[in-house]
Amino acid sequence: MFKQLSFAVLTLIPFAVTPNTASAQTITDIVSASGGEFDNDRNDFDILLTAVVAADLAGTLATPDLGVTVFAPTDRAFIRLARDLGFEGNDEEGAWNFLVAALTDLAEDGDPIPVLTNVLLYHVAPGNITRFGLILRTFFGSDITTLLDGATFRPFFFWLIDNDPDIRNPRVIAPRNLEASNGLIQGINRVLVPLDL
User: What CA–CA distance (Å, rounded) separates 48 from 41?
Assistant: First the structure.
């Protein structure tokens, strides 16, 4: 009975809303504003931009009517993942190179791009999911379905519970509810991991 009531309430609550067309910048434009050069600013998206370009997803994230939420790991998030996996440095370029090598090891054929693409798609969900939407999903036990073949992660307020139980879960940080012309960006402090590493 409670599940039916929860479902009925969830259908009335707009978790996914139409993208804000007031912003002239697409998701790709906003992420590209980082410059794409490895630097010392851990709060921007240089590594994410490098990954999106390598996976050939920049054009997709620039599609005018895309209507998605990107849970966007900052450079610090990628460095933390690399360090969780054994990287001993603290620089963006070193972390990126370490992660590419790790993805290459995970790939059956030695090509890191399909694995990278899957990891990135796990950070994208249909519709605009606001911080308030995360709170509502927490109360109603509603997972977030991603573009990675329907794979999900669970919000717990501003924490996002992914599929690796041993690596710390990400939390939504600034920028929050950053509106693009084709969706929404939520900054996160760690990378979402779609599988148990």
Answer: 13
The domain defined by 18-188 folds into FAS1 domain (2.30.180)
pTM equals: 0.87
Provide the CA 43 distance to its chain's centre, in angstroms: 15
Find all residues with CB under 8 Å of 12, minimum gap 6, and list them.
Answer: none
The predicted model gives 71-92 an average pLDDT of 97
Average pLDDT, rounded, for the chain: 88
d(CA 11, CA 167): 33
Pick from 91, 96, 45: nearest CA to 71: 45
List beta partners, residue 171: 159
Q: How many CB atoms lie within 10 A of CB 196?
A: 10
pLDDT tens, residue by residue, 137-194: 999 999 999 999 989 999 999 999 999 999 999 999 998 999 999 999 999 999 999 9
Position 105 scores a pLDDT of 93
In this structure, the dihedral spanned by the alpha carbons of residues 27, 32, 34 and 39, taken in order and rounded to 10 degrees, is: 130
The structure tokens listed for 128 are 């605009």
Q: What is the CA radius of gyration of the chain?
A: 17
Structure tokens at 5: 């009531």
